Amino acid sequence: MSGKLSMLAPDWWDYTTLDDALLNDAAKLTPKDMLELSREGFEVVFYDTIEDFYLAEALEYIKAWKQASTDNHVGICGPIGPTEQLPLVARIVNELQLDLSNAHFWGMDEWYVDGKEIDPTHPLSFEKADRDLCFNRIDPKLRMPETNLHFPKADTSQYIRSWESGIRCAIMQGGQGDVKHWAFNDPVKREGKYKDASPTPEEYRKLSTRVVDLHPLTCMQNARTSSGGVVTGVPTQAITVGPIQTWKAEKVSIWHAGTHDNPFGQRLTALMISKRIEDSSVPMSLLASHPNVQFNYYRGGIGVCETEMH
Hints:
By secondary structure, the protein is an alpha/beta fold. It has one domain (15-295): 3-Layer(aba) Sandwich (Rossmann fold), CATH 3.40.50.1360. It has helices at 20-27, 31-35, 50-65, 85-96, 126-133, 157-163, 201-205, 216-226, 243-246, 263-274, and strands at residues 42-47, 74-78, 103-107, 109-113, 116-117, 149-150, 168-174, 210-213, 237-240, 252-256, 293-298. The protein is globular and about 55 Å long. It starts with 19 loop residues before the first helix and ends in a 12-residue tail after the last strand. The model has no long low-confidence stretch (mean pLDDT 96).
């Protein structure tokens, strides 16, 4: 029997294919309810000011990198979206004179155009954003070697090997998109073996770093957040870190500023992870099986799931 059709893109799986009762339960959650979703292995944290929110995100970089030593290389995997933490990271490194010789960084994802990763000089390049907003701002004598910067490429082999080389990933950060992804781990198309049912959580968690087709909702969101709504200028494919690499991270830390996903989405994934309701139509929900996940919320961005006319 075929599953419920998406209201947003009938040729795809996404959160609108879930049972309405679950969606309605998520919409009813108050901020107090959200805090109470914390359980062993899943913590919900609120920040009262946007300054505290982004500073806390930046400090995760510092906490990870301070663990690094000659015989213990340690890194963090970070997103583009949010980006406001990145200049703060550079400033803190410079102020503390933190030597990053043994520290590492993994980019989460990158656009894929015409059979290759987008050029790092392109305005939309995630690598360019990481370098411009953070790494190029760090004092040259403190910077990590170029070999310690790992950005995903169309040929994913070197990037995947970096995750298997003995480097500890202390933290994987992420934002949450409208389609409820982390990185570009989007729901899949409704075709072939997945025409009538989305991949099982077990199937989805076996995915590695790869090239993916982006859900139409992801394309629309990135047009809104990165190109003034010009959706025709946004690529429809990307390279993304996979669940296999995500489960190598000791902690997954997701940052909800209220500028990417909406009040409903911020509630839905927290509910599903807390209650261990896993469904690959909501890829973020699969983090329910990761042993150490933290959801970070800016209190002013949580919003409400009520009728508001604008």
